[in-house]
Amino acid sequence: MWVDTHCHLDAGEFSGENAAVAARAGEQCVSAIVIPAVERANFAAVAQLAAQAGNCVYALGIHPLYVPRADESDLLALRVKVEQALGDKLFVAIGEIGLDLFVPELKTPEMQEKQEHFYAEQLKLARDFALPVLLHVRRSQDLILKHLRRIKVPGGIAHAFNGSHQQAETFISLNFKLGFGGAMTFPRSLQIRRLAAEMPASAIVLETDAPDIAPAWIQPGVNTPDQIPRIGEVLAELRGMSASQAAQLTSANALAALPRLASSGLLN
């Protein structure tokens, strides 16, 4: 049993094949796939997709890459949608939210301020409803942590983690798991592989970020959630454990990071 803690199954690359992609992952023992929203326009889509597929759950949030075209009404709509979704057993988190200081147009003072505003407001939403968050952390680890120290949330997952050892330990101290995926499969990704090997076993979850961040054997192709077992085998090799041990470990960690996943019934 495996869990893909971050997969954009509603992406255009999977158009018309979404359910089939999820089903193929299920055939590879991927029992749960977490589909994060990225903007108001796809809140309903991720919820509907999770309901249609037999092995998916979803999160709701506004991704930093979509902040430039978002406004305050989107934050209000998110709060309403979250309140409605609390009764849905397939709703598990606030996400994908965070900060991106890699994309040039997002690094201007004005846009960074807007990013931080949307990030902070969504952290407050997670705090208010005691929900974990799925964090986008690109070139922004310290700033992400600054807000997490100020706005206390139950925890969650630092998606596609690529920070320092010290930053990793700080996320862990704040009850966050670290997401590892395709980037870990490249031999030259020394820092990521070192973190995957050395971080506490209880801190690691697996993800694809499909259709992005394809593993070494697919890159530059389209990533899919059925790659999780093979990605898990790489983690197992790095940590000196069996694939079955890696599956059990990372699935348990996903449940710890996303408590509502247990009530979804997917991992029973």
From TrEMBL:
Gene3D superfamilies linked: Metal-dependent hydrolases (3.20.20.140)
UniProt keyword list: Hydrolase
InterPro entries, A to Z: DNase_TatD-rel_CS, Metal_Hydrolase, TatD-like
GO molecular function per UniProt: hydrolase activity
Domain of life: Bacteria
Entry-linked PANTHER family: D-AMINOACYL-TRNA DEACYLASE
Family of this protein: Belongs to the metallo-dependent hydrolases superfamily. TatD-type hydrolase family.
UniProt-recorded name of the protein: TatD family hydrolase
Taxonomic source organism: Herbaspirillum lusitanum
